[in-house]
Every structure is written in C-alpha cells, then in structure tokens.
Request: fold
Amino acid sequence: MPLKDFEKNFPSASKSVRNAILNKKTAHAYLVHCDDSDLAVSFSQILAQALACQYKTKDGDSCGKCKVCIQIYDEKYPELFILYPTSKSRKIQIGKDDFTEDSLRWFQSLFYLTSIHESGKKIGIIRDADRMTTEAQNAFLKTLEEPPPDSFFILHTAHPEDMLPTIRSRCQRITILRNSQKYNFDGADILLSVLPDIYNGYEDIASGEKAASTILSVLTLIKTNAEKKTTQNWEKLISQSENYESNIGKKLEERRDTAIQAEYLSARESVIGLIYCWFAQLYQLSLGITLDDIPNPEIMNDVNKIFQNNPERSFECLKKTENFVQTMKWNVDESLAVREFCLSIVFPE
Ligand SMILES: [Zn+2]
Reply:
C-alpha cells in the first residue's frame, strides 16, 4: 500500500514525505509519532517502501509492485533490520556485543556489513523506540550523528516525550495520531475557549460560574444532537407500530429513550475527555514539554495566552479534573457536579 492511501486520513504526513522524495531531501532518520501500534507498523513499512523503491511514481510515491516494494511488504527484504523490545521488561538493551540478538549493538552492526541487495539500500526500523534504555539511546545517537552510507532509520513510538531530546532532534518528525480526531464534537471550540479562563480565574467566582454554564450548554447541545440522531433511527419503527397494539409502541418508545441516553453518555465521554486532556497537557507544558511532544497539540491553541509556566497550579487543576472525571462516572446530578468542578478550579483549598 503506497503513501497515497494514507493521504485521506493523514494528508500532511503523506504529502511531506512525497515532497521530500521529489526534492531529493529525504532524511536519514524519521521519528514516527503514532498512538496506534498497528498503524505505526504499517506506516513505517510504507515509508520504507517509498524511500527504497527504485521505480518511484512521478508524485514521489513507491510503485508498490517492484521486487523491493514486495520484499519490504513481506518483511523479506534482506537488508531490512527491525529492532523491538523483546525482553520481559520490554526494554531495548544496548547488549554485550554485536552478537547479542535483539540488542542495539547487534542492530547497529548489521548496517556495516557489505550490501548484498542490488538496490544497495539498508533500512532500520526501531519499533516502540521509547523502550530503548538511556544507554542504548546514547549509543544509537552516535549512529544518527554519522549514519552508515545508503541507510535510513525509521523509529516509531507512541511516547516521543520518553526519548532523549538529542535523539528526537536528529530525526525528522512525522505525526500520525488517530486520537487527535476524537475531539471533533459540536461545541468543542466553545469548551476550549472557556478552559483558559477558569485556569486564569484564580479566586474569581464569576469566571467559575461562567465556565460552568458554558460546559452545561455544551452538554445540552450534545444531548440535543443525540436525540436527533437516535430519534431518526427509531421513528420509522415507531410509526409502523401504530398499526399494532398500543403497548408495542410504548415499549419501542422506552427503548428509544434508553438509546438516546446511551448515545448522550457516550458523547459526554468526549466532552469530559477533552477537559481532562486539556488540563493534563497544560501540566505537561508547564513542566517544559514542548507542543510537539504532546498527543493533542491542536487543542492547546490558546495556551500561549494563558501560559504562566506554573507547574504547581497546573498540577492542582489536574487533580481537580481527575476528581471530576471520577465523579461523573457515578449517577450524579450533572449540573451540580460541573458547577462544583469549575469552582474547585477557581478556589482550590
Ligand atoms: Zn517499488
């Protein structure tokens, strides 16, 4: 499967690689930040094909059909070397010597053997690269500084923040996150605009109240949407039942109402999840982690406006948010819980 097949879901990742290939500006090492392990494995394979294929298309993609492409797909390309965590601790160790299989030293040594494939390209893939020990990462850094000829490396990880900054800065970053799509519900923008206000509204009751009514209005909006969506599906069934005894219609109406509630609760998860994600990321940023290294940078747009680099305050807010997430799991009075949460951010004892 060539890069173009990724274009619909991850347009910028796919286009940037194809442009680099067309302009002959590909990197020696790529760091693929991906939150889905199957997707990470298949994207790394596609990236390897695009870099190694000798019959590239005119838009910078792999042909998907030549010997190299097929061997890479089948993981039978003789100079495709894959390193991944195998030990019980799921760590990638540096290894005693070049002969310790599945160790970093073993992996590196493979790139200095004479090339046996006619394409002459060597490909190294490190899966779950954040599982490299610090020792292994430091050793790999030397390879990144002086890469062996005709070789390229693809590292993938769901947690780039757990890797040495020196490694990250020497790799070209490609971000493909499934999760970043999940906060697309109606009202997400309204919600995001009010979160910086309560964070900043320390001891300001008005901003707490305003945030509470905003969050509740977003919940009302998603409830209305859940009703609309579910009712459409049930309308036909209920209208057909009008020809039958009245209790059938009544039962269907009850089931419809249960379905609406289920749809609403699942949509509400996204709302609560967004609030939690925002505060969790704010805390990460306050610790000096960069926007590049958090899973959902797209929701932190207004962060520069509020950012006070205050880990203590951010941590306090995160704890209050965790309480809120827990509370909402119980069958509680929703508006009371939301109000209490907003006031707890504004007035943390
Ligand atoms: Zn090909």
